Amino acid sequence: MKPHYSRERLTLVNELIYEIKVKDAMSREVIFFDEKATFREIQLKLKEKRMSGVPILDEHKNIVGIVSIDDIITAFDKNYIDDKITNYMTREVITVPQNFSVVYAIRKLEQSGVGRLPVTESANSKKVVGVITMSDILNKLLVEVQSVAEKVKEEEAKNGEISDKIIQKVTKKPLRFEVKGDDFDSAGRVASITKKYFQNLKVPTEIVRRIAIVCYEAEMNICLHSFGGYIVVEVNEHNEVVISAYDRGPGIPDLELALTPGFTTASEKIRALGFGAGMGLPNIKHCADKFEIKSSLKTGTFLKAIISLGEENETK
User: Fold this and answer.
1) What domains lie within the chain, and their CATH numbers?
2) What's the rounded Cα separation, in Å, for the pair 184 and 244?
3) Nearest residue to 97 via CA among 211, 191, 188, 180
4) pLDDT per residue rounded down to tens, the chain (316 residues)
5) Quick check: 135 and 161 in contact, CB under 8 A?
6) Do 100 and 186 meet the contact criterion of CB atoms below 8 Å apart?
7) Quick one: angle between helices 102-112 and 134-158, nearest 10?
8) What are phi and psi of 235, to 5 degrees?
9) Is the model's pTM score more than 0.85?
């Protein structure tokens, strides 16, 4: 059976973009000012460094505002370029936590239209530990792709088959993960552990990518839309990886609508965080060879995605 994803192959970049954390791609050298700075001081620094803006930090390096090139232009136009920034700077600042996936950073950069985002120590912290731009993300991706491309080719050549002993081992020892609601700092944990597990079992790279994406999206759905739940990953007697996700949440009123790309019921809080783009369930369905979902407004949602490891007779 040919998997349906063959018309649009998942690439190494697809895989890496889910795995790379903001802290892995960000620049740790942060150029910043405090509230005593004037617009002219900042303008000279922006010109020198060719930047579009700088964060404004307090004595503890907590972010209190930001000044952009647009603010500088306005200060010139209204003739307060030599004034201190305190009464003019933007205080509602878009930031990204360092432990979030770069997927989140990309969404925030696209949504906000800014060139760079301050990176905070955690989701609940205002302490700035770095800055990230789209260029930072692309450079990190290029480095990672270059470092693993040859290794991937070698693995794909070697890992054409999976032995019965390996399948039996996985079947007897399914992976189980507890997932907490709103636990963004742990986002991606399930996908990362599962990916390494199947890599060690010599599963073909293309299949591992699909497994990792399903696990990531399922984990994020539980994290974003429920009070918590768990994910189980196992291999059945038909040589298939079965990923089951259970959540305790409000349930999904209209499953057909929920599977429509771009449709979302995400709250303002979730959308403000850069999530809730309405692609989670469609991505899972796209990567799976078999897909099942059931939801109750009383008990929550059950989701099962099955990915074939190959024809059954390949392991006989």
Assistant:
1) 22-137 (3.10.580.10), 159-315 (3.30.565.10)
2) 20
3) 188
4) 333 434 344 455 666 777 788 999 999 989 999 999 999 999 999 989 888 889 999 999 999 999 988 999 999 999 999 999 998 998 889 899 998 888 888 888 888 888 889 999 988 899 999 999 988 998 888 787 766 656 655 655 555 444 444 444 554 578 888 888 777 667 778 888 898 888 888 888 889 989 999 998 899 888 887 888 899 999 998 889 999 999 887 777 777 776 776 555 545 544 444 444 446 788 898 899 999 999 887 788 899 999 998 754 343 3
5) no
6) no
7) 140
8) -115, 130
9) no
| Strand residue runs (E) in 13-151 | 53-57, 63-68, 96-97, 116-120, 128-133
Give SS3 for 116. strand
Which pair of tokens denotes residue 313? 């007779």
Show the beta-strand stretches assigned E in the chain: 53-57, 63-68, 96-97, 116-120, 128-133, 175-180, 228-235, 240-247, 290-296, 300-308
**CA-CA distances (angstroms) from residue 229 to 77, 145, 182, 248?**
54, 33, 11, 6
For residue 226, the one-letter residue type is: S
C-alpha span between 301 and 227 (Å, rounded): 11
